[in-house]
């Protein structure tokens, strides 16, 4: 299903400063964990939280190798692997660079500091991308963070790290889990999905795409990609990783009970789970137009390797997730500028569009289906949700009705007809 297994997982040459507790002669060159070199004094072989001698079930004798052993359990699930690596990498780099301590010597008090660090990683020049953008791991501009983490991302980071510490304790590498001592707040009920585009704002995006210039070959290529990307995300409700890893050969058709063709798109989703999603005649027609614009036959063959989103150069090379992200952000950003050019009254709508991302399109697809009366079980299966509880978060019609009824019927009704001062 995926265009390729996955690219080189660890590569960077970024040097950071170190804590005063580390001798100047032992400056740590901070790289992603697979290529990171840590001085012996900080590598954890003598960590104060190490398990009993001879009790470890790992061959790892230092923290880096122990973290790699934990990550190896997720090597076959690219998205999960990258998320887990990111959080383990941040903690390990923070421990070594900021505290001058090995991971296996971290205490409860240290992790309280780290919890605060996630709210606002400082010094920013060391930890945060100067532009807030994502750069390849081999780029000198790469940083562990692109900005302060949202509350949800902070919670997710701690959940992942708690799982890592628990595994290292179970493996006998560590004596105890200091993360387990952190105060756990009661889990709040999930709110309605809010990061989605209303029907009216989505209509603005479509109008913007349709008015894109198509005079030159470059303009036609940009228009075709923009139209196909927005169509694919919206009609199929796909995750960015699913679009990036998908191929044209994942489309297939079969004969329905009514004797008519049914088109389906096979998708490799979260947790490496496969699902098939109905592909409407509208989507197939858009695919035809996109393929013809790119010099391909109108319909794909069963085993065709052409990516779902065709690069402007190198036809059979999958775009990365970040490239897909940037392409969608470009559409929304340009649409926002176009809206602002229409007048000051469009400023708020333009601001909303600038915040939108590819994942907003997945939420938009689910929300519009739910509010349009599509059965929640159908939406659940199309989006690859495990539970209907997740899918129900896309329902907004009840909220809209509640808002209308409240503002229409619950009023102050000040009598403003009397002249002032009388």
In brief, what are we looking at here?
The protein is 44% helix and 5% strand. By secondary structure, it is mainly α. It is found in: Cytoplasm.
Secondary-structure blueprint:
Elements: H1 63-71, H2 78-99, H3 108-119, H4 124-127, H5 151-170, H6 199-210, H7 217-236, H8 240-245, E1 251-255, E2 261-268, E3 274-279, H9 281-293, H10 321-340, H11 347-355, H12 358-371, H13 376-383, H14 388-391, H15 397-409
Antiparallel strand pairs: 1-2, 2-3
Helix pairs in contact: 2-5, 6-10, 7-9, 7-12, 10-11
Domain Tyr recombinase: 192-408
Domain Core-binding (CB): 61-169
Subcellular location: Cytoplasm
Describe the protein's architecture and organization.
This protein has helices at residues 63-71, 78-99, 108-119, 124-127, 151-170, 199-210, 217-236, 240-245, 281-293, 321-340, 347-355, 358-371, 376-383, 388-391, 397-409; strands at residues 251-255, 261-268, 274-279. By secondary structure, it is mainly alpha-helical. The model is unreliable at 1-27 (pLDDT under 50). GO terms for molecular function: DNA binding. Residues 192-408 form the Tyr recombinase domain. Pfam families: Phage_integrase. This is Integrase family protein.
- Write the CATH architecture name of the largest domain: Orthogonal Bundle
Give me the side-by-side strand order of the main sheet. Answer: 1-2-3
Write down how many β-strands occur, each being a DSSP E stretch of 2 or more residues: 3
Indicate the structural class: mainly alpha
**Radius of gyration, CA atoms, in whole angstroms:** 26 Å
Name the beta content range. Answer: under 5%
Helix count, per DSSP? 15
Outline the biggest β-sheet.
Answer: 3 strands, antiparallel
- The level 1 CATH classification of the largest domain is Mainly Alpha
Report low-confidence residues grouped into runs of 5 or more: 1-27
In quaternary terms, these chains amount to single chain
* Morphology: globular
Bin the helical content. 40-55%
How far is the first residue's CA from the last residue's CA?
76 Å
Summed over residues and divided by their number, the pLDDT gives a mean of 80
GO molecular function: DNA binding
GO biological process, one term: cell division
InterPro entries: CB (IPR044068), DNA_brk_join_enz (IPR011010), Integrase-like_cat_sf (IPR013762), Integrase_catalytic (IPR002104), Integrase_recombinase_N (IPR010998), Tyrosine_recombinase_XerCD (IPR050090)
Protein name: Integrase family protein
């Amino acid at each position: 299903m995926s265009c390729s297994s996955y690219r080189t997982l660890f590569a960077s040459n970024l040097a950071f400063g170190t804590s005063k507790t580390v001798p100047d002669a032992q400056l740590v060159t901070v790289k992603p964990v697979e290529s990171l070199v840590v001085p012996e004094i900080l590598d954890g072989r003598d960590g104060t939280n190490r398990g009993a001698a001879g009790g470890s079930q790992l061959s790892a004798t230092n923290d880096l190798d122990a973290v790699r052993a934990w990550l190896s359990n997720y090597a076959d699930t690219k998205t999960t692997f990258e998320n887990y690596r990111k959080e383990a990498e941040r903690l390990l780099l923070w421990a070594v660079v900021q505290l001058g301590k090995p991971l296996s010597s971290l205490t409860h008090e240290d992790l309280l500091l780290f919890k605060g660090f996630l709210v606002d990683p400082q010094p920013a020049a060391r930890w945060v991308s100067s532009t807030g953008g994502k750069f390849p791991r081999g780029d000198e501009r790469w940083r562990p963070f692109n900005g302060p983490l949202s509350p949800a991302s902070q919670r997710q980071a701690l959940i992942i790290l708690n799982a890592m510490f628990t595994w290292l304790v179970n493996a006998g590498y560590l004596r105890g889990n200091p993360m387990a001592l952190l105060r756990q707040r009661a889990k709040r009920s999930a709110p309605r999905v809010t990061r989605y585009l209303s029907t009216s704002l989505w209509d603005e995006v479509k109008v913007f795409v349709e008015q894109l210039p198509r005079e030159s070959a470059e303009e036609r290529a940009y228009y075709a990609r923009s139209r196909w990307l927005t169509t694919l995300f919206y009609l199929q409700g796909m995750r960015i990783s699913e679009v990036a890893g998908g191929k044209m050969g994942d489309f297939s058709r079969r004969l329905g009970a009514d004797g008519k063709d049914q088109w389906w798109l096979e998708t490799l989703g979260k947790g490496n789970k496969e699902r098939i999603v109905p592909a409407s005649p509208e989507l197939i027609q858009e695919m035809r137009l996109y393929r013809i614009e790119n010099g391909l036959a109108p319909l794909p063959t069963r085993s065709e390797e052409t990516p779902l989103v065709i690069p402007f150069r190198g036809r059979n090379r999958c775009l990365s997730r970040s490239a897909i992200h940037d392409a969608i952000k470009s559409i929304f950003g340009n649409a926002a500028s176009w809206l602002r050019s229409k007048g000051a009254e469009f400023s708020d709508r333009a601001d909303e569009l600038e915040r939108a991302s590819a994942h907003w399109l997945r939420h938009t697809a689910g929300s519009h289906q739910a509010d349009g009366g599509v059965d929640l079980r159908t939406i659940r299966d199309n989006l690859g949700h495990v539970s209907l509880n997740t899918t129900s978060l896309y329902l907004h019609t009840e909220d809209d009705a509640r808002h209308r009824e409240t503002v229409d019927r619950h009023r102050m009704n000040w009598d403003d007809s009397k002249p002032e001062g009388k």
